[in-house]
C-alpha cells in the first residue's frame, strides 16, 4: 500500500490547509482526552455503585489504559511512519470512541478494566501519527508552537471531560432520581460514557477526508513509501509480545548476549511482580505493569537490530535521554492530579459534583489551554536566543509548580485551593511544547512517529500507569490507619508533589548535552549507518 500524496496548496508548508489540518487534529486530541479522563469526574459514582477501592480506581483510570496505550503506541507509531497517517487516526477514533460508549454498559470492575484496555489501544493510534503529519506541514522554526497548539487539546479535553461529565451527572440525577425510570435504566455515570463517546465517531469521518502531506517535505529529507506496511507493523507487534519477542530476536539473528539480557530482565520483572503484589495486595496492577516493562525492553532490543540508526539517535543520545525521561517524569504528578483532583474537592472541600465539573473543568480548559500555547511560543523564542532555551522553560515550570501544588493540597480555604488549582493546571501544561519539539529536533523525519510513540509510552508509564494508582494506594493505606477518606487522599496527593525532584535533576543534566547533540544530528545519523543524509 502506498501513502496518499497531496499536491499544490494542500502540500504547502505552513499554508491555509496546514492550519486547517492543525485544527482538525487538535479536535482529535480533545476527543482523545475527554474519553481518556472522563472517568475522573465519575470516580465517586463508580466507587459507590461498583464497590471499588481507591487503588482499583487508580488501576482503571491509569494502569489498565496506560500500559496498553503505551505498548500499542510502538507498533502503531511504526505504522504511522510507513502508512497513511490520517487513515490510521480515523480508524483509532472509531475504536476508542466506540469502546468509551461500551464502558457505559460495564457491570463490574473487571468489565470496565477490559474496556479501558481497549480504549488505550485505540488512542495509541493518534498522537504519533499527528506529530508526524504536523512536522511535515510546518517548518522547524514554528514546530514548538504548532505542537503546543496540538497538545493543548489534552488540557481542553481534560477540562471538557470534567465539565461535561459533571454536568451530565448532575442533570441526569435531577431528571431521574429513580434510576429505574431512566432511559434503559441507565445510571448517570453510564449515560456520561455513552454521551461523550458519540462525537468521536463523527470526527473520525472528518479525519478520513484530510490530505496526506509529503513525508519529510519541511526539511527536504523525503522518504519512500514502505511496500508492506501491515506486515512491518505485525513484525513490530510480535517484537514486544512474549513469547514471540524471543522468537523474533532469534529470527533476527540476535547474539546470545541479547537473549541472555532478555531472559535476565524477564526474571527480574517476575520477581518484582511477586514482591510488589505481596506488598500492596494488588497483583493485577503489577502484572499489567510488569508485562508493559518487559514488552518495552523487548521492543528496544528489536529496534537496535531492525533500525540501528533510529536506536542510536534515541538511546545513544544523552541529550535525548535526559530530555525525554526528565519531561515525561513530570506526569507522575500531572496525571495523578488529573485523575484525583475532582475527588479531592468533593471529599476535602465538600463540593458537589456539578460545582467540581464546572469550576475545575473550566480551570483546566482555560489555564491548561492558554499555558500550553504560551509555553510553545516562549520556547520557540527562547530557543532562538540560546540552544537550551526550551529546557530553561521546563525547569522554571517545575520550580513554580511545587509551591503552588503544596498550597493547593494543604490549605483549608476552598477559594485559595481553587486558585492554586488554576495555577497548577497552567504550570503543568507549559512544558509540553518545549518537550515535544526538542525530541522531534533530535531525530530524522522518518523516525518521528516512532519517537513520538516512545515519548507517549514514557508519558503514560511514568505518569498514568503509576501516578493515579500510587496516590490511590497510599490513600487506602492511610485510610486503613484511621484517617478519613478526605484526609487520606489529601496526604497522598501532597506526598506526590515531592517526586518533582526527579525531572528537575534530569532536565538540568540535559543542559550539558542538548546543543551539541542537535548540532551533530546528521553526522550522528551517518555514523549510525543512515543512508542518504
TrEMBL record:
One cellular component term from this protein's GO annotations in UniProt: membrane
Organism: Elongatibacter sediminis
Cited CDD domains: MFS_spinster_like
Keywords: Membrane, Transmembrane, Transmembrane helix, Transport
Domain (Major facilitator superfamily (MFS) profile): residue spans on this chain: 21-511
Top-rank taxon, per record: Bacteria
Membrane topology: Multi-pass membrane protein
GO molecular function: transmembrane transporter activity
A Pfam family matched in the record: MFS_1
The protein's name in its UniProt record: MFS transporter
Membrane-crossing segments per the record: 20-43, 55-76, 88-107, 113-134, 146-168, 188-207, 259-277, 283-300, 320-346, 358-379, 391-410, 416-440, 452-471, 491-511
Subcellular location: Membrane
Amino acid at each position: 500500500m502506498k501513502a496518499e500524496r497531496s499536491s499544490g496548496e494542500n502540500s504547502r508548508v505552513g499554508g491555509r490547509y496546514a492550519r486547517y489540518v492543525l485544527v482538525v487534529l487538535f479536535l482529535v486530541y480533545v476527543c482523545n482526552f475527554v474519553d481518556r479522563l472522563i472517568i475522573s469526574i465519575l470516580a465517586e459514582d463508580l466507587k459507590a455503585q461498583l464497590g471499588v477501592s481507591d487503588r482499583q480506581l487508580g488501576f482503571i483510570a491509569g494502569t489498565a489504559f496506560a500500559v496498553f496505550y503505551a505498548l500499542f503506541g510502538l507498533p502503531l507509531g511504526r505504522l504511522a511512519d510507513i502508512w497513511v497517517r490520517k487513515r490510521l487516526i480515523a480508524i483509532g477514533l472509531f475504536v476508542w470512541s466506540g469502546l468509551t460508549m461500551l464502558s457505559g454498559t460495564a457491570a463490574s470492575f473487571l468489565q470496565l478494566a477490559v474496556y479501558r484496555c481497549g480504549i488505550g489501544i485505540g488512542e495509541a493510534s493518534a498522537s504519533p501519527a499527528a506529530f508526524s503529519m504536523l512536522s511535515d506541514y510546518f517548518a522547524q522554526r514554528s514546530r514548538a508552537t504548532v505542537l503546543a497548539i496540538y497538545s493543548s487539546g489534552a488540557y481542553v479535553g481534560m477540562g471538557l471531560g470534567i465539565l461535561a461529565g459533571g454536568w451530565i451527572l448532575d442533570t441526569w440525577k435531577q431528571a431521574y432520581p429513580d434510576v429505574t425510570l431512566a432511559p434503559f435504566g441507565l445510571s448517570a455515570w453510564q449515560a456520561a460514557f455513552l454521551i461523550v463517546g458519540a462525537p468521536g465517531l463523527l470526527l473520525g469521518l472528518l479525519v478520513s477526508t484530510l490530505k496526506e502531506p509529503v513525508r519529510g517535505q519541511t526539511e527536504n529529507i523525503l522518504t519512500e513509501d514502505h511496500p508492506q506496511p501491515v506486515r512491518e507493523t505485525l513484525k513490530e507487534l510480535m517484537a514486544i509480545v512474549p513469547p514471540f519477542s524471543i522468537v523474533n530476536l532469534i529470527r533476527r539473528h540476535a547474539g546470545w548476549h541479547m537473549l541472555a539480557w532478555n531472559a535476565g530482565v524477564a526474571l527480574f520483572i517476575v520477581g518484582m511482580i511477586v514482591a510488589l503484589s505481596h506488598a500492596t495486595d494488588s497483583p493485577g496492577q503489577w502484572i499489567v505493569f510488569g508485562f508493559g516493562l518487559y514488552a518495552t525492553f523487548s521492543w528496544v532490543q528489536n529496534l537496535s537490530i531492525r533500525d540501528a540508526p533510529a536506536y542510536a539517535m534515541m538511546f545513544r543520545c544523552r541529550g535525548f535521554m535526559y530530555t525525554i525521561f526528565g519531561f515525561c517524569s513530570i506526569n507522575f504528578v500531572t496525571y495523578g492530579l488529573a485523575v484525583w483532583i475532582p475527588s479531592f474537592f468533593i471529599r476535602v472541600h465538600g463540593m458537589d459534583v456539578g460545582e467540581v465539573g464546572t469550576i475545575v473543568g473550566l480551570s483546566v480548559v482555560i489555564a491548561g489551554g492558554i499555558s500550553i500555547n504560551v509555553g510553545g511560543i516562549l520556547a520557540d523564542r527562547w530557543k532562538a536566543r540560546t540552544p537550551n532555551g526550551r529546557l530553561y522553560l521546563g525547569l522554571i515550570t517545575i520550580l513554580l509548580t511545587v509551591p503552588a501544588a503544596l498550597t493547593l493540597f494543604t490549605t483549608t480555604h476552598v477559594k485559595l485551593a481553587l486558585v492554586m488549582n488554576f495555577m497548577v493546571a497552567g504550570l503543568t501544561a507549559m512544558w509540553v511544547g518545549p518537550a515535544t519539539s526538542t525530541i522531534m529536533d533530535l531525530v530524522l523525519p522518518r523516525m518521528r512517529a516512532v519517537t513520538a510513540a516512545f515519548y507517549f509510552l514514557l508519558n503514560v508509564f511514568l505518569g498514568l500507569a503509576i501516578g493515579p494508582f500510587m496516590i490511590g494506594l497510599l490513600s487506602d493505606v492511610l485510610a486503613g490507619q484511621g484517617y478519613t477518606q478526605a484526609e487520606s487522599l489529601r496526604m497522598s496527593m501532597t506526598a506526590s508533589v515531592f517526586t518533582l525532584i526527579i525531572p528537575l535533576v534530569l532536565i538540568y543534566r540535559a543542559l550539558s548535552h542538548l546543543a551539541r547533540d542537535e548540532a551533530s544530528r546528521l553526522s550522528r545519523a551517518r555514523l549510525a549507518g543512515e543512508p542518504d543524509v
